[in-house]
Amino acid sequence: MKTIRHLLTAAAGTALLITGAAAPASAAPTTDAAPGPVAQAAADTASEQRAVAEYWTPERMREAQPLDLVETDAADLTRVPSGSPSTVEPTAFPETGAPWTGDGDVNTTAGRVFFSFDGRDASCSGNAVTSANKSTVITAGHCVKYEGSWHTDWTFVPGYHDGQAPFGIWPATQTLTTPQWEASEDINYDVGAAVVAELDGRKLTDVTGGQGLSFNGSYDIDMYAFGYPAADPYDGETFIYCSGTSFKDFLFSDDHGLSCDMTGGSSGGPWFSSFDESTGTGLQASVNSFGYVFLPGTMFGPYFGDDAENLYETAQNS
């Protein structure tokens, strides 16, 4: 096992989204005032899905960049996590004889996310999870919507490496995020999801398998974080991970923290508790979200509480 790095730097009092710009922070809304998850239709016809898949050529995928790293003022974002612990068990992983690069089943469930934002090709990371529709991907909120705009040409490429899509290119039919991220881009709720179309008559997790999930869990636990960092010194072509004991953010959010130096492009990549290195399976409990510019070498991911669980339930039943 090796622990990898990312690059995040900046001044005190600011926060940075790892794949893109940190959104203007606002005080966390109370849970009783929060509406349900917010969804946006994407490529919902066969012709649109084909056009998205054809758009993302190997060259475009190699050249896609993480969103610009932009600073934002930090505010008091603390909230009290509530709700009962719950888990979703992993889906059985198919034995398809598809090429593997090692390190277990996470290499089929996790992948690179591509989309168009503000006229440019951009990238994040994501992960396929157990779901009723067998078509749900979990990522970061800013990987589906940022600065008031939903990303277009959104697609998921599980097992991506070196411009290759060994398990196919899966255009989204719908992208979703938490109501708090949709309303004010509150970094405590930087969670997104996508429902992807069938590919050649097969559903996503029938091809890749799906990781389990954990909601309303604990801090201070062993975590593994995965992603495709694309900002220097990385290039987005290699699947990277960090591991260690998580902690509760002691500054401006209620996020999980982890010693890690992944850069932009890794946002939306999964954090796993109960991760088994021998099988590459675990329970997804967060996603790569942001880092403080004055605290290099540390990455943060949102706490998966009731709002994240509601988002998951909405996505898997879409």
What brief labels describe this structure?
Glutamyl_endopeptidase; hydrolase; six-stranded antiparallel barrel; Thrombin, subunit H; 13% helix; alpha+beta; six-stranded mixed β-sheet; hydrolase activity; Trypsin-like serine peptidase; 6 helices; 318 residues
Tell me what the structure shows:
With 318 residues, the protein is α+β, with helices and mostly antiparallel strands. It has a single domain (14-316), classed as Thrombin, subunit H, CATH 2.40.10. 13% of the residues lie in helices and 32% in strands. It is built from six helices and 21 strands. The strands form five sheets. The protein has a six-stranded antiparallel beta barrel with strand order 5-6-7-12-11-10. It has a six-stranded mixed sheet with strand order 4-13-19-18-14-15, covered by helices on one side. A hairpin with a 4-residue loop joins strand 18 (270-276) and strand 19. The chain starts with 13 loop residues before the first strand and ends with a helix.
Supply the CATH architecture: Beta Barrel
CATH topology: Thrombin, subunit H
Output the structural class: alpha+beta
**What is the helix fraction of residues, given as a range?**
10-25%
- Shape label: globular
CATH top-level class:
Mainly Beta
Number of domains: 1
Give the percentage of residues in beta strands.
Answer: 25-35%
* Count of strand segments: 21
C-alpha Rg (nearest Å): 17 Å
